[in-house]
Amino acid sequence: MRITLHKRRYGMRYFIVCMSMAALMLTGCATTNQTASKIAKLEESNQELNERLNRLATAKSRCTAALAADDRLDEQRRKELRQALSEIESLRTNLQMTRRMHKELLRVLAVPIKAGRLSVIVRNGMITLQMPEKVLFELNKAKLNATGRDNIQEIANILKRYKQRWQVTGHTDTTGETKYNWNLSIQRAKTVMFEMINTGMSPKMISMAGFGEFQPVAPNDSKEHRALNRRIEIVLVPNLSRVKFDTQASATTGICTSKTS
């Protein structure tokens, strides 16, 4: 009887140890996946900035070469090339400012980023702070939960140090009616904006918009992907020259590569 009881106790201890080890392994896998995802997003942001800077460098080289290629250029053509070079330099300065700001936000927001409550990315040349729905709201609700309120206050206390304009945007997945999703995204963005204002951000430096299901970051084909689309973003509002980057870069490159007179 004692031998049987001992075996049972030993077996139970062995089972508990095995389950504990399995739990640790699963936790480690989840942590590794989260870290890999953060690294991938950071690399993607850096790649976008580098590609844009490279495009400007190419355009600048072509403009400079076009100016030096032929001393018979008429004054109008020289004026166009000099203007293109000036615009390229302005765009390059703006992109370098974006890169510095991105690095700065990664540093000052390191705590919520490390905790998985926030991502700071560069998309379409604009710095974007992304927060998943689960960090801020209950499903289909527009009222911040306690954790969400703390999170927004923490971020607002940091962003208000900078003399920058921000826009809060709400996003949903495609589940349910389009009108409902659109209204939900608007209400959530408004809730976050007012919480940031209550935390001390100037109303002159913040705005909001709701995009419903129309700006997804992933296809709505799985539970995981739909969760990615249900999010709040806080976007650094660029000045006009940054908004027009693609158009200007394309135009200046065209000027620099067109035939000389």
Tell me what the structure shows.
By secondary structure, the chain is an alpha+beta fold. It has a domain at 126-237: OmpA-like domain (60s Ribosomal Protein L30, Chain: A), CATH 3.30.1330. The chain is built from 9 helices and 5 strands, in the order αααββααβαβαβαα. The chain has a 5-stranded mixed sheet. α6 links the parallel β3 and β4. α1 packs antiparallel against α2, α2 packs antiparallel against α9 and α5 crosses α6 (178-198). The longest helix has 68 residues, at 2-69. The radius of gyration is 26 Å and the shape is elongated.
How large, in whole angstroms, is the Cα Rg? Answer: 26 Å
- Read across the widest sheet, the strand sequence of neighbours is 1-2-5-3-4
CATH topology of the domain at 126-237: 60s Ribosomal Protein L30, Chain: A
CATH superfamily of the domain at 126-237: OmpA-like domain
Helical content, roughly?
Answer: 55-70%
**Shape designation:** elongated
What CATH architecture of the domain at 126-237 would you give?
2-Layer Sandwich
Mean pLDDT: 80
State the distance separating the first and last CA atoms.
Answer: 105 Å
Q: Could you give the count of β-strands?
A: 5
Number of helices: 9
CATH class (first level) name of the domain at 126-237: Alpha Beta
Percent in strands: 5-15%
Largest sheet: 5 strands, mixed
- Helix-strand pattern, N to C? HHHEEHHEHEHEHH
Structural class: alpha+beta
Contiguous runs where pLDDT drops below 50 for at least 5 residues: 241-247
